[in-house]
Amino acid sequence: MTSAPLYTLRDVRQVYGTRTVLDIPALTVQRGEILAIMGPSGAGKSTLLRLLALLETPAQGEMLLHLDGERVTAATASIAQRRRLAMVFQRPALLSRSVRANVAYGLRVRGERNGHKRIDAALERVSLTHLASAHPRTLSGGEMQRVALARALVLEPHILLLDEPTANLDPYNVRLIEGLIREQHQHGTTIILVTHNIFQARRLATRVVLLLDGALIEEAPAEQFFGSPRDPRTAAFLSGEFIY
């Protein structure tokens, strides 16, 4: 893994109305890592993920994505640069079409009409080949999330952003999706994962960030974060003293 930063955040604040939901003095995301963003509900995890996905612009401060020798923001990123990113939301919004059509959607939007082999490969990766013709309303929650993940993976993103991708799923789907995350990381993809699941972060992350009430409490390599946290609030979070 290279140490060259992919993202740099400086004095970033995000405000909704009169409420400050995120306040991060400094943060970097390294290329090729799996960064887990942790914290209780309302901590600002999804807000930070949306900023990193270029879906929002911070109210204050600077968030830069370093691509192609350029420093881009949500306001300046080109379509081609935005296409390096793919995001999977906690509640997948699937089209009222077949599973295969959902997976193919992003390629069609990009004008790629000959992606049949990539679509087949994506369906096979998420173990949904047998449901390619099924309608989303017939799928389980885990199957729907796997469709959403396949729709992202078929685009071959450089950066994959995941918002609680296994929330409320059964152990089979959790294991399958976590395996796909590891596999995609081995392909060189930078993965940013929002999760409140401490065990999942232990299994997947190379580095971890903890947010509480919108503030960045601690960031550290996973081994240090879980083994010897510096901040007592991190230790309290890991021991279950925070109820959320």
Low-confidence stretches: none
Question: What is the CATH T-level topology of the largest domain?
Answer: Rossmann fold
What is the CA-CA span between the terminal residues? 34 Å
The largest sheet has its strands arranged as 6-7-8-3-9-10
- The total beta strand count reads 10
Proportion in helices: 25-40%
Class of secondary structure makeup: alpha/beta
What is the radius of gyration computed over CA atoms, rounded to a whole number of angstroms?
18 Å
Reported CATH architecture of the largest domain: 3-Layer(aba) Sandwich
Main pleated sheet: 6 strands, mixed
CATH class of the largest domain: Alpha Beta
Percent strand equals 25-35%
Number of structural units classed as domains: 2
Summarize the structure in words.
Helix 3 packs parallel to helix 5 (141-153), helix 4 packs across helix 5 (141-153) and helix 5 runs parallel beside helix 6. The protein starts with a strand and ends in a 5-residue tail after the last helix. The strands form two sheets. The chain has a six-stranded mixed sheet with strand order 6-7-8-3-9-10, with helices on both faces. The protein has helices spanning 45-52, 79-82, 99-109, 116-125, 141-153, 171-186, 198-204, 222-227, 232-239; strands spanning 5-16, 19-30, 34-38, 60-67, 70-72, 85-88, 159-163, 190-194, 207-212, 215-221. A hairpin with a 2-residue loop joins strand 4 and strand 5 (70-72). The chain is α/β, with parallel strands linked by helices and 244 residues long. The protein folds into two domains: 5-84 and 159-239, P-loop containing nucleotide triphosphate hydrolases (Rossmann fold); 98-156.
